[in-house]
Amino acid sequence: MQEPGLREHPPIHHSISRRGLLKFCVAMVSMLALPGWVVPVFAERLNTARRPSVIWLSFQECTGCTESLTRAHAPTLESLIFDYLSLDYHHTLQAAAGEAAETARLEAMEQNFGDYLLIVEGAIPVADDGVYSTITGQSNLQLLQESVTGAKAIIAIGSCASFGGLPAARPNPTGATGVANMMEGGLIETKPLINLPGCPPIPIAISSVLAHYLVFEQFPALDALHRPMSFYGHTVHERCSRYHFYQEQKFAERFDDEGARKGWCLYKLGCKGPITHNACAVYKWNEGTSFPIESGHPCLGCSEPGFWDKGGFYVNLDQILPLAPPRNETPEAAIDAGQQLYEENCIYCHSADPTRFATAAEKVPDLLRSGTIRSHKRLDFSEDQLDILEKYLDSIK
Is residue 62 packed enough to be buried (19+ CB in 10 Å), middle (13-18) or exposed (0-12)? Predict the structure, then answer.
């Protein structure tokens, strides 16, 4: 950590070998879904990259995201992150406390104004002017507003900072919310933003995004929720080690039944993998040892907005899908039900704005019936549901 009063960042002395650097860069390029020819460029730029100042703020959270980063399984990952970044403020990792810590933050912000990277961990309570969480006499809201002003870009680490997470679960008495919502609501300035949701996010996702930013001074390609496509472009279900059991319709019915002991699919035990975008099944935790589904527990959907309130952790998706209205319902009711069906199932992969939906409304039911798109197979909509979905899409085209 930088000591208060230090005006310049010290020169970087790399203890990593050229071979180690190239090995690291090959891994980073692969994980970020970049073309292979980028590896030497990535290595050269990473080796000569200017060491940016980082301000890491922690709000309504459990520190699990910081814990996740410190458990990055490859030693070179951790050493590179701390060698190539000037981590000037972090509640958990800094040695300084009290006035010394705040002095370090303010000095880093002043000396690097307009050029520092702001990392936010935890949700921000905004109800009643943010009185529900304070640091050094300032509310989290005030501290974030102050720190955003001079930031070049913002990384929201974890589902709490990204979408509100657990603190925002109903009834949300503190008004907890994520960084993106605050930007959209005008509570803080709009800055380049990347969300790395998860409870906690995968360590390699954090370090890879930081490496990409160091090399290219911008974030990788993002989805509609500001998540990097390289890590959140596919569902957990698509790359799950139990996927073949799903295809074979072999499901565990209880946690202690024969199916569970044989490693069958956990869909009927409430697995949210089919609607959860993350790379848990690929990169895993604890030195790539395992991830929740592989350890026998269904995916909770922790990298999606509002996952705490989506129908219960152990309720399967078939029970959560909205029921179709009776055939004699009014057209308006059918359209409303179709909109709910779309918002609870389709916007995870497609645009939240259905007017940008590529497939014509009248062709959607036949496409879903065909079963030709693997990621659509799990939907298994009834004829009534397909009918109301078509009515909704047709009403807004």
Answer: middle
Distances (CA, A) of 309 to 83, 268, 346, 364: 40, 18, 18, 28
Exposure letters 129-150 (e unless 16+ CB within 10 A, then b) = ebebbeeeeebbbebbbebbeb
* pLDDT averaged per 10 residues in sequence order, the chain, 397 residues: 44 53 61 60 61 90 87 56 76 82 90 94 94 92 95 95 94 95 94 95 84 80 89 89 91 94 94 92 84 93 91 84 51 73 65 68 74 60 75 78
Is 166 within 8 Å of 122 (Cβ atoms)? Answer: no
* Residue 354 lies in domain: 331-396
Which two structure tokens, joined as six digits, stand for 319? 């029970």
Domain assignment present for residue 92? The answer is yes
Q: Is the Cβ–Cβ distance between 158 and 198 less than 8 Å?
A: yes
To the nearest 10°, the Cα dihedral for 166, 93, 28, 296? Answer: -40
Note whether 204 and 196 are within 8 A (CB).
Answer: no
Per the structure, how many domains does the chain have?
3
Give the angle 305-310-311 at the CA atoms, nearest 5°. Answer: 175
Residues 381 and 103: their CA atoms lie apart, in Å, by 58
Which residues share a beta bridge with 379?
none
Return d(Cα 394, Cα 235) in angstroms, integer: 27
Look at the pTM and tell me if it is higher than 0.85.
no
Question: Looking at the structure, do residues 224 and 356 belong to the same domain, yes or no?
Answer: no
Are residues 226 and 242 part of one domain? no
- Would you give the distance in Å from CA 179 to the centre of its chain? 12
Nearest CA-CA partner of 282 in 224, 237, 228, 249: 237
5 backbone φψ class: left, alpha, beta (φ>0; ψ -120 to 50)? left
Report how far residue 35's alpha carbon sits from residue 328's, in angstroms, rounded to the nearest whole number.
54
Closest to 308 in 3D by CA, of 179, 199, 195, 233: 199
